[in-house]
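Supplementary Methods S3. Input chains for the assembly prediction are listed below.
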Amino acid sequence: MRAVQVKIEETDFRKVEKAVSKAVALIRKGLPKERVVRSIKAKGLILSPDDVYEVARCRIKAREKFGELADNLFFDEEGLRYSTPKVVAEYRAKRLKCDVIADVSCGVGGQLLFFATHCKKVYGVEINPKRAIIAALNAMALELNNIEIIAGDALGEEVPVLVRDADIIFSDPARPPGEEIRTIDSLEPNPLRIVEKYSHTTDRIAFELPPQMPPGRVDRWLKGEKEYTSLNFKLNRLALYMGGLADCDVSAISLPSEERVTSEDEAVEIDVASRIGSFIYEVDPAVVKAGLVANLIGKIGLQAEIVKGDKRRTLLTSDGEVKSAFLRRYKVVDVVSFGVEPIRKALRKAGAGKVTLRFSLPPSEYWSVRKKLENGLEGDRWVYLFRIGDSAVIAEPTC
Ligand SMILES: C[S@@+](CC[C@H](N)C(=O)[O-])C[C@H]1O[C@@H](n2cnc3c(N)ncnc32)[C@H](O)[C@@H]1O
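Predicted structure tokens for the full assembly:
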């Protein structure tokens, strides 16, 4: 395909915005798709009535991801699903601040719009022509005049020439849903080919890779800093910063706090716990995936031991009390043997009313087990129950 700059006239923008706002209102009133689509006049619109309907539906859904900003933005279904959450996009844009950046697989522009508030000039390249128009509409909606959208193939011959003044090349490639083991091969555009195409422009190249990939698997293909991003205590992203963008081998960042731990932080030996201390700490999955638990403990100076026995989460125990965005801290209330009767007795003694279960069990059994334990409790304390080997640990979250 030929690479072309997407230019939208102000009048075309206003027409499409009016059509989408009307469709949003009709959908909110409960009108079925056919009636909404029929009410949209196709003449002179740069999107088809079906596309306007899709954008309107997505705009309603996008509130969860983008808050009130969504009311001004344009999306298609896939573009919305893969768009970067606002907090992550803001952080990434700060870290990649430069004069000229090229996002060579920009989708609807979830990340691109944030680059535009931190960089002087931003290129957005998108292979899907409709999505490229949507990205351009978003730039106009937010009056970001420093964005240039190119509809084209980042791996073609023309795009590397068009963006040759870029200081940084960024790519968040599309990935097929539901792959069992994430590899580089299935990503589009393929990061290895992006490096081939753009390394003569700059060595400062950054990617978003599937976060399930451990550092060693990334290293097999590409070298650089692997930054695991946690959003609200969930592993959300894995960024790879190459060349001059890297400042360590592996790192983890917690958002929104921006607390960071890296492979440069001195790691300490962590022994296996022989007893449960005054606190249980749950470790952020991003730190676990990054392999930085020992570095985190070294950095924050906690005397902690690792608790074995829970396959789904990494738990530490300690008598020390520390605060870190990478740790959820629980004060231990009681430790009893793991069985319904000892647990219920301990819960009554603790004055508990509700119990959140923090141990592996099939999701279909969660509520029946929880109800069995909560049945007859009269207290007002909300406690958490961990299973550690043959012991049940009753604990309370502390801020
Ligand atoms: C995961 S999405 C990007 C999401 C974007 N970062 C955001 O926050 O909205 C990846 C995009 O890359 C586009 N793409 C795939 N291959 C491409 C190529 N060779 N050149 C340009 N864009 C490509 C896809 O169409 C898709 O829209």
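The mean pLDDT is 95. The pocket of S-adenosylmethionine is lined by residues 82-84, 104-111, 125-128, 131, 153-155, 172-174, 188-189 (CB under 6 Å).
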